[in-house]
């Protein structure tokens, strides 16, 4: 059975393809359109579909739209209620619902040959839940918790997976929404709502939760698996911050307070769910599950022995979840997702062709991992473009920006390169077998979705990746799945004695992660990155911007080209 999953209505439009229960491809529209998050989550954009992502998924599998057996659209307008009845200030939501109702016809227009009768509406939170429960490894019997801004009429779902069946247990109706409360705070602090919530989480570590008692009046668990979360008078707690204004201690304290109350509430929900199921495995999905600080507390203090989080936990993940859910309902055993590298890739010949077309000097070193380790050891910054692009918001060793963790100034340096706020941390990448000696927290952590305490003896050795509170959001690397990244880490340690490399996403502020070679060249050419490692090839800044007789320096090693 061939199932195409589509997320489109709110934000992060994406497509995924599941064939006979196996995840074949998944990609976000932003990587093709180069618009961050694909679009803004407003009713007037609800008609926009992940057309390019869907076409690529089909092409990758050698399929045509007519070959698809069923399409999972991760929103069910039949479950929705008028916004005013739910206590939401969203006067144009009726337009969004009209677009959702006509999604089958829109999809048939976007994908000629697709029968609109094959489109099935899947409840938004059930799609989220399936993206966790069915995609996780060894989770045939497991609990699942979904929390986000909103779905059709709820903001939360607690459920349980038993085999191929997903059973809803509890939902929290709107207007109560932990996700919407965090979005409101994001906007109050001068950041972009439904986009920059991770900045609030980072800012929180610079503050004290001294306003937590006041926020608890409006945000708290109700003891029955639900919660109250709306109506926080943010302006009474702290003046709003303008987008271009510096943040103050009061802003950091407000962020810390809201973060602390969020964590408390999540822990209560997790404990309630465990009391219902007594499972050992918990899977998380929904935008709130991208809060890695809260995730770490759930793993550390919660009753579940294992916590797994969908790497595309935001709305993009519902494309995959919807497809997995319909596949399971058709009687096919859903297979765990093979990893987050589910997007586009290019052959060596295709990359070389792109480099020659761009008329940039490049070389093919004997081992690109060794070449990168040498540049990193000399304190250079490397753009790392390898294999299939990642599904979800984290760079996980396929579209990454790498640097030396032993120089504290590299944090400011990378934030300058990316054009982002200096309070933002960068992350460490480490081999799985080396991680426990340096980091204390849930291990392994392949998707960078938990924070870990950095061992005191290591904090001065890798200062660039240690956040102000002594933690780091790590990515562990399994050499069986990522042999090239593992070799690069080993070569870097051989030269520096450090088994850790800085890893942050290969993009600049306000732009999606790079996806194809053109994106990589544009990012490299516009920022002071020292080396672009793209496939087996190396493009060096010292060569690209030096001039020879014909205006370019040509590097002969490995047959590079220039003009």
UniProtKB/TrEMBL annotation:
UniProt domain Carbamoyltransferase C-terminal: residue ranges: 373-541
Organism this protein belongs to: Streptomyces roseoviridis
Organism lineage: Bacteria, Bacillati, Actinomycetota, Actinomycetes, Kitasatosporales
UniProt xrefs under Gene3D superfamilies: 3.30.420.40, Carbamoyltransferase, C-terminal domain (3.90.870.20)
Domain Carbamoyltransferase: 2-324
Family: Belongs to the NodU/CmcH family.
Coiled-coil annotated spans: none
Protein name per the record: Carbamoyltransferase
